[in-house]
TrEMBL record, chains A, B:
The keyword DNA-binding applies. Coiled coil: none annotated. It comes from the Bacteria. This is TetR family transcriptional regulator. Keywords: DNA-binding. PANTHER family: HTH-TYPE TRANSCRIPTIONAL REGULATOR RUTR, TRANSCRIPTIONAL REPRESSOR MCE3R.
Length: 195, 195
DNA sequence: GTCTATATCACGATAGAC
DNA sequence: GTCTATCGTGATATAGAC
């Protein structure tokens, strides 16, 4: 009953995004052709242009969706009273979120330079907003005396770089389960921000 | 007296490497054409093949040279007696080395997937060797009781990710001079590894 | 919505003159 | 060592049939 033609919008649309994300993460935006995406989806190259005006818009859409997810998840975190608990929540959240979607995280880092300047500005602003979320926790902890962090901006960038680095080595089924990774990064983070 | 032909090997060879490094860092290996490199160097595309068998070998040569420089600089560090001093030296060194050559650092991270499997294995082994250099410092500090780091492998990766992250935001002439950046990252690192 | 076919252009790499 | 010219291939994107 397999059809080689006809309408499959409900399947094709999401599948284009899934396969493009996978291929961009594996080989890089510039190295992946529209023909290659089409082959993975199971359509001809021309059919992709029913779903995206061009390749650049497809990349931007994937990155924008990822950053939107991140912002939404961050805003949904519980606002515990104490900065120490808020920081612990953030550390656990950041690691889990990033390990759950390694492909999106990878292209959000690697393919920024393949965005047009306008699209880059949008994503970069979202990244700064996310960083500000952590910085506010650090500043709150400074105010209560819970943390000892002379330069909250630098510490914010240091912590995010340290935590995001987990995506470069973590593999499901590896030496440490997710929970252990979260706990150990939290130990390191806690020691780092307390005198 | 400008010549448009003739031999310029002593100029062209290094210039190809400089321009290729710059262009790969700016736009990515896959997005840069041999014609583009040739234009930046001031020769025709065909002339590049007097210096490299192909584009892949050019990329590998740049990455290999960078990793060789890193290994050589690491081995030249003073072997201070105390792990605390050795770690401080490492932190200052790692930051200075990486900030001195942002383009090479960038492509050493971003273009690994554009290496052939054989070339990738070579670079990856060098990266592991470098990480081992830090891990040995941490283990030495554990042995003397100077450090409190339950998982030296994870702490190694966390520290390197944190320190290398400086390349994503540091700009010469910015808010903090190099020395201040080194000192603040050392403060964070020291707090992180001591209980 | 998908297909086939194609316009237009650029790519990596090579050959042979100088 | 560099040039010009080119081979063979594949890229993005579009047009029009179904």
């Amino acid at each position: 009953m397999a059809r080689t033609q006809g309408s499959h919008a409900e399947i094709t649309g999401p599948k284009i995004r899934t396969e493009a994300l996978r291929l961009f993460a594996e080989s890089g935006y510039a190295a992946v052709s529209m023909r290659e995406i089409a082959r993975a989806v199971g359509v001809q190259a021309g059919a992709l242009y029913n779903y995206t005006p061009d390749k650049q818009a497809l990349l931007f859409s994937l990155l924008k969706g990822h950053m939107d997810d991140l912002a939404e998840a961050l805003s949904a975190l519980p606002r515990a009273a104490a900065p120490m608990e808020r920081l612990q929540t953030f550390v656990h959240f950041h690691i889990a979120f990033h390990l759950e979607r390694p492909q999106a995280v990878f292209i959000a880092y690697m393919e920024l330079r393949n965005l047009t300047p306008e699209n880059f500005a949008v994503i970069e602003a979202q990244r700064r907003d996310y960083e500000t979320g952590l910085e506010e926790i650090l500043r709150a902890g400074m105010a209560t005396g819970a943390f000892s962090v002379p330069d909250s901006k630098l510490a914010t960038l240091a912590i995010i770089a340290m935590l995001t680095g987990v995506t470069t080595w973590y593999r499901p089924g590896g030496r440490l389960p997710l929970k252990a990774v979260q706990d150990r990064y939290w130990d390191l983070t806690r020691q780092m921000v307390t005198a």
